[in-house]
Specification:
CATH class of the largest domain: Alpha Beta
Number of helices: 9
Distance between the termini: 12 Å
CATH topology of the largest domain: TIM Barrel
Number of strands: 20
Helix content: 10-25%
Structural class: alpha/beta
Strand order of the largest sheet: 8-9-11-12-13-14-15-16
Number of domains: 2
Order of helices and strands: HEEEEEEEEEHEHEHEHEHHEHEHEEEEE
CATH architecture of the largest domain: Alpha-Beta Barrel
Shape: globular
Length: 377
């Protein structure tokens, strides 16, 4: 039985030339994430899936570790085509090692021997056909860290855009200027998990805060639609001071960036912290409001955080989109994305009309016969 490592080592292509440079002694510098790993001959980078073979950088290609059809609200994007179906796919590997990762089976593959997710062979064309079959409007690269598999994502996104679909990343935001420029022509939506506002905490997760904050600024400047999520973990990142710094940073870029503060529950290796309560989320939301953020959402606890699931007009207070979990209960935006009461423009990527919701909960794609589990060549 071939190992996962040997299977993945066959499913590769050379990296895009803009995403690495050659160094002396046959080493390479990778620019797919903020680590900018200098990779020796025969070795992988921190992510474990981009590696130096014969002085060339090889990267993941030709497989997915899973697909799921999600309401776009699950990503979460609240200001991008509400009610749309997002066809979500991912590969294996990550540049961080968060102890509370909910997708650790895919993200920590090749790092944790218990993380096993058999890859499925697929082409970009087949994946886009499958998404269209489901009625998806958006293809989203998620589940692992999509930055480290950007070449594959772009190959899929090129097909998606040719078919008239939108594209997006669900990412930790640990990017570089090079990888964001590589993605820029092919991506519409970008969600960043801003996990903390402490460099010490980011070191515990395997990264640094500097590249992430710079990437958030750059993504916004590029004109991609950006939403931010912070998983609120009691005792880790939930102090008033840290939340104040985090929300003031976001408001300093734009008060119109949606900020989702979501509830933690014990997972993977983090089992000692208590679960987040509604009061925790409400406190964080008040801090965000004081910082000036206009669109704050509380997630993972449907129906018990007041109006923090709804989109409201910051000018007149009108409820524009009413939600319960991932379900759109009411939609009142005009075709131009304005408040019907005061005509204020609401920032986002809106459809001309709300044409219903295919699903208000995740489900596995149908017609999966095109995809085959990879065992060996």
């Amino acid at each position: 039985m071939p190992s996962l490592r040997s299977i993945l080592d066959e499913r590769v292509r050379e990296a895009d030339a803009s995403l690495y440079q050659r160094l002396e002694n046959n080493r390479l510098r990778c620019f797919s994430c903020g680590h900018c790993c200098p990779i020796p001959e025969g070795q992988p980078g921190v992510c474990k899936v981009r590696f130096n073979r014969g002085g060339k950088l090889f990267v993941p290609w030709g497989y997915t570790a899973g697909m799921q059809c999600d309401p776009i609200e699950k990503k979460p994007f609240f200001h991008a085509h509400p009610g749309a179906l997002a066809y979500s796919f991912g590969m294996l590997g990550c540049d961080l090692h968060c102890a509370y990762c909910q997708n650790w089976v895919t993200s920590q593959a090749l790092r944790d021997p218990n993380a096993i997710s058999p890859p499925l062979e697929v082409s970009p064309e087949a994946m886009v056909r499958d998404a269209l079959d489901q009625g998806a409007k958006v293809l989203v690269s998620t589940y692992n860290e999509p930055l480290i598999t950007s070449e594959w994502a772009v190959a899929v996104f090129k097909e998606a855009k040719a078919a008239g679909l939108l594209t997006g990343f669900v990412s930790n935001g640990n990017a570089t200027p090079q990888v964001l420029e590589f993605l820029r022509p092919w991506i519409d939506l970008y969600k960043v998990d801003l996990k903390s506002f402490s460099d010490r905490h980011y070191h515990e997760l395997g990264g640094r805060i500097g590249p992430i904050l710079e990437s958030i600024r750059r993504i916004h400047e590029m004109g991609l639609w950006l939403e931010i999520v912070t998983l609120l973990i009691p005792g880790f990142n939930d102090s008033d001071d840290e939340l104040r710094q985090l929300t003031e940073f976001l408001a300093g870029i734009s008060v119109d960036i949606p900020w989702h503060v979501t509830a933690f529950h014990a997972d993977y290796k983090m089992n000692d912290e208590r679960d987040t309560t509604p009061d925790d989320l409400l406190r964080a939301a008040e801090i965000g409001r004081a910082a000036g953020l206009r669109y704050i959402y509380a997630g993972n606890l449907p129906g018990i955080t007041g109006d923090l699931e709804d989109t409201r007009c910051p000018q007149c207070g009108e409820t524009l989109i009413s939600r319960y979990g991932y379900f759109i209960q009411d939609y009142r935006l005009t075709p131009e994305g304005r408040c019907p009461s005061c005509s204020a423009q609401i920032p986002g990527r809106w459809a001309r009309e709300f044409d219903g919701q295919i699903a208000s909960r995740p489900f596995l794609p149908r017609k999966r016969s095109r995809l085959f589990t990879i065992t060996s060549r």
